[in-house]
Amino acid sequence: MAPQKRTRDSVDQPTPSTSLLKAEKSKKTKRSHEPGSYDAQAAPAGKKVKFGEDGSSKDVGQRPATLLSEEVDFPRGGGVTLEELNKSTGTTAMEVDGQPVPKKVIKRAEGGKKDKKGKQKADASVSVKSDTIRVEHLNYKRLEPGQRLFGQITSILPLALIVSLPNQLMGHVPIVNVSTQLTARLEATPSNSSEAEEEEEEEEDNDGVPSLSQMFKPGQYVSCMAKQVRPVSSTIDFGAKPRDEEEKAARRVELSIRPTEVNEAVGTGDLRAGFNITGAIQSVEDHGYIVDLGIKDVSGFIPYKDKSNPDERRLSVGQVVSSTVVKLSENKRLCTLSVEPDAIQTASLTEATSAHALLPGTLVSALVTAVVPSGLNLQVLGYFGGTIELFHLPSGADVKEGDKVKARILWDIPGSSPPRFALSLLPHVIRLTPPSIQPIPVQESKKSKKKTEIISEDAPTLREAYPVGMILEAVKVTRVESEWGLVCEVTEGVGAFVHISQISDSLIPQLSSTSGTWRLGSSHRARVIGYHALDGLLLLSFKPSVLELEYMQVADVEVGKRLKGTIVRLRESGLVVALSDKVTGLVTPQHYADIKLKHPERKFKEGATIKCQVLNVNPERSRVLLTLKKSLLDSTLPILAAFEDAKIGMVTPGVVQRIEERFVILEYYGGVKALVPLNELTDTQVSSTSGLFTMGQVVKSRIISIDKDQHRLTASIRQAAPSFQGPVDISKVEVGSTVSGTVSAVHDENVVLSLDDPESGRALLSVSNLANARGTTVPQLRSSLENGERILGLSVISVNAEKALVIVSAAKPKEKSKPKTGISSSLRIDALEEGQTVSGRITQTMGTGIGVRLSSHVVGRLHATDVADDYTGPSAVHPAEGSVVEVAIVRVDKNLKRVDVSMRKSRLEPPSKPKIVDREITKIEEL
């Protein structure tokens, strides 16, 4: 059945005007006297309507009655318009505004109570003390300028705060609506900028205007006032396009958190201990902060000693803070405040001088006066009325009539008398924390036998546990709002909502809780499309088209991924490409192709499918950059998508982004950049970068330096060439070991070899040494030696790990060429001990002895008397220069950095006990 016009009127105009009541009473037609046809909301407060035998109505005292349970309430709409519904159902027209609908009203009347005579009682209007009252819902149409609300910050933009409001509404606070002090500082910034440049750095930090992200944080609760509600079609510029549907919806409602507006009606008498109030930092004094509360002749003061976290930075002038009253001075001109989170969270009111003192976010004591299908009726502080809708009742809450509860005020209901408020019992709203996914277990108190909450502070938040785009396999429908949507349960304690427009790809005019695919208790596959932080709800979609989307938001797109997109349009700034129904990317003109296109409009046609690759993703700006360069799309090299992925020696493609005289800047994926110095551009020596590269050119580069502290990369284009031979790890090559290699070049004095192990390792062999080993002359060797010739059995003399260079000798190695101690080129004097046996190369003959190079760092001295145990024997011949010998360490003087060695067999092989003809001379007296 199509929805009736009466339902819309009962929602959007809950209280008829006086003229309308008079007009209804003046009508004497038969229709106006029929039982059940009289609108209950037209009855005066505190009265009920009874119909006499003659058909006339009269007012009588009224008893409590639960009447709102049958009242249809669709405050948010969003399903279909009346015209769309007429077309889809085939009806000719809807009823005219104000025309009665007998069937609907009768059905509503049948649900009420009957008196002793069996006559039907009419619906009662609002009565706080004895009557059930309508559970209020908020929507964009009902939201009025000047209305005060409680909200939670969900995201922070450079020029606005995005705020989650009750009943799944969103709003934004422009930076100029934060406080008068902040606005004044912003207006003064241009004129004071030159002076600020001359001040010291520390003073600049204190005087600089802080950003919104420095003053606020996501998840923070704020009391605000509605300034303006815009129609759906209107837009407002935040400096960037909306990142998601949440931010898009927030642009409709402009809010203010200025204390002068939010606290406008608060009086001095309301400032009692435990009263929560927001204020703006007016000035920073020696002992604390002066706070503007927006109350005439009253200032707030926050002493430094009461700062909740002394390690954090100081509060800034213009910053809006939540606080609770500690005390009011005797002259009632200074109010001492506390910003302790625990004090703010637990502060509650037990009495109020007026309704103006009940600010949004105030924790109050209330009495449950009625439990109705749409929520709770409350009596707040013994006088004021209140309601709590189902969305703001905890899951599994067992609340009965007569219970006393503590609830937090969400918004005030304008035009109500006595004043009424909408409140919340949700645990995260009571605790002033972000909603968590942990179901709240309960325990019974032994004294009160009432259930109390046990809450874990480590539970992940709703956003952390259910990111946008997440697929949920089984979501259960727990409540059906026929023209609004489906209330669901994801897991125990985690609620969700599916708007009627997100249920199916086809038009759904109305939902049924007892039949159809989306009936009560049915389970469905769903996808997370957003959140409502204040209500603690996930926003889901059942649409097959949404479930099949590869990308739900910009953050889902992976840098470096190759994908297909659809051309949306070609603009001067670039080519707009649709990656999904929710995400678009941009191809800048530099990335249209490997060459510059003169007529891109000839190549790119709207609706065409193209292959592209993701260059960069910026979720904060809701921006995806793409490339169409074939050299990047076809590259098989690993991509550099983040600074942390960079490794020394990594070869990766980059795009020339900037050309200077002495260097070039390359840009990789993910916005990573590297500097290429002039000497690393080409193999040839050049004086400048002129003519070497063009902007947008794709080149291969090798990462050669990483500065993590400065977050800088240095790359080389020269070393990325296939012909370039990079450094080889030769740490495993030991002095005295035998190696083989292939001749790669012959120079004047040395032969350059390419070693077999390690592969491509470089070695130098003396030309004269090789000639001596082969028993030929140097000229003859040069004429016979060819590139590619293999030379075997080379002995390692020294190893230079820094230059990755090995010095070898063609002399035949001795049987014990390998040092017994295994000392390599890294041998230092600190590691030498007397009696140790090492290998060394004879370098030169000195006046005091023969020089023996033990490593690149240590040279030993071989005295003539230490060459052999027998001076006249065959072994007493001095070794030739360049030959490799084994020596024993005789003495080590670390202070003078002097090492004495010996070639005596008695030193090298003590266990063999060789014959000593000429003993060692250790003292001059022994001569």
TrEMBL record:
Q: Where is the composition biased (Acidic residues)?
A: 195-207
Residues forming the S1 motif domain are 146-241, 274-340, 469-543, 560-629, 649-718, 835-904
Q: Looking at the UniProt record for this protein, which Gene Ontology cellular component terms does it annotate, in alphabetical order?
A: small-subunit processome
**A GO BP annotation:** rRNA processing
**Which SUPFAM superfamilies does the record match to this protein?**
Nucleic acid-binding proteins
- A single GO molecular function term of this UniProt record: RNA binding
Subcellular localization: Nucleus
Q: Region Disordered: what ranges?
A: 1-79, 186-213
Pfam (any one) = OB_RRP5_4th
For this protein, the record's InterPro entries field holds: NA-bd_OB-fold, Rrp5, Rrp5_OB_4th, Rrp5_S1, Rrp5_S1_rpt_hs1_sc1, S1_domain
Specify residue ranges for compositional bias: Basic and acidic residues.
1-11, 22-36, 50-61
The alphabetized UniProt keywords are: Nucleus, Repeat
Q: What is this protein called?
A: S1 motif domain-containing protein
Lineage of the species this protein comes from: Eukaryota, Fungi, Dikarya, Basidiomycota, Agaricomycotina
